[in-house]
Amino acid sequence: MKIAFPYCLLLLCCFAGFKSQAQTFPSNNDESKVAAYTLPDVLKMPNGKQCANSREWMQVQRPYIFHLYEENQFGRFPSKKINIRYRLLETDKNALGGTATRKQVRIFLHPADSSVYTDLLLYIPNQVKGPVPVFLGYNFSGNHTVSTDNNIILGNRWVPSRARGAVNNRATEASRGADTASWQVSTILVKGFAIATAYYGDLEPDTAAGFMMGIRSSLKDVLNIQPNEWCAMGAWAWGLSLMVDYLQQDNSIDAHKIALLGHSRLGKAALWAGAADPRFALIVSNESGEGGAAISRRWYGETLQIINAHFPHWFAAKYKTYGDNVNALPVDAHMLLSLMAPRPLYVASAVEDTWSDPKGEFLSAKEASKVYALFGKKGIDADSMPALQQQVGGTVRYHIRAGKHAVTLYDWEQYLQFASEQFR
Ligand code: GCU
Question: Where is the signal peptide (predicted)?
Fold first, then answer.
């Protein structure tokens, strides 16, 4: 493949950054060493006045903060609407022992090039009549990993070599069902929710050079946006939005009840998608950490400097300029969370996942609650973090559970209960 000159430079910078810096930046796991910091005021409008009500929020402050995120962290979110095409690749009304209808839908993203697509896997519960609410989320290594169902089409895209069963960066039969623990399919279906999932690497492979094989290159003329004007997180977030376009015309789905869930890096992408697209009716950040729900100004766990060094492609170029001066960043995670308001938002942490800074996630959810208050919605008023396995909050909800960085059955049970309550 021919690589255009500016991209060579971009790549060189990425790799140089990775090599020289990745190991050297300090990180901290000692709460007593977290220095005092001042968060940007989420309600301070560009004219210096305090945002006082939901109308000012929607008309002035929200667009202002969204724009700050485009400028400083994620780059442009494509505004151009594209006409996607769908093809139902396969369906079975008797999937998973008759409990669900399975659909595998190819979503073509390019008007002419049919190699640019993402495959959406859906399971729709059979026991419920009429359109159902859905949990939409990316998976980490292919649709075939979320269930042991042998009928799921085995992905043929690039996958990281650490993915189970991967040979030469491609999935094999041994990859099937590798991530069933993160996708509690039967529990979700029993609660009356559909599941919709796609592999995030369909949009852009998660490597520094991935943009050359992903939609930031293949759609640059269609979307009128150059690869370096946005970032991998942006591409993943935008892909989620296109899945909503599909879900809106699938009459087995209640398109007013689309819950978006993302774990870890995919939680960061989910928050950006939730910020950009109001059609996500509920957003779940599962341990999204640095660049997602965790306060960047807190020196704890992963830092902005470290994330940029390890994952130079995740965020826009400007974000890297704050590595050694995080206090100059005009936004912080509470502002990203505030862009979900007034929609239900669930932020979750795990106690052993210190890398994601659980306390930083709690504090940003609490701070974002100020914006929910403008809408008369209860957020988090607790002053300190709850005990393990205790939900706190109202429309903004938080828990920290025992255990490691993962999406567990416990997490799903809370999200399903929350969504059932909020969608009532
Ligand atoms: C790394 C990275 C995190 C990210 C995580 C994941 O640990 O530093 O920012 O959330 O990977 O996506 O699993």
Answer: 1-22
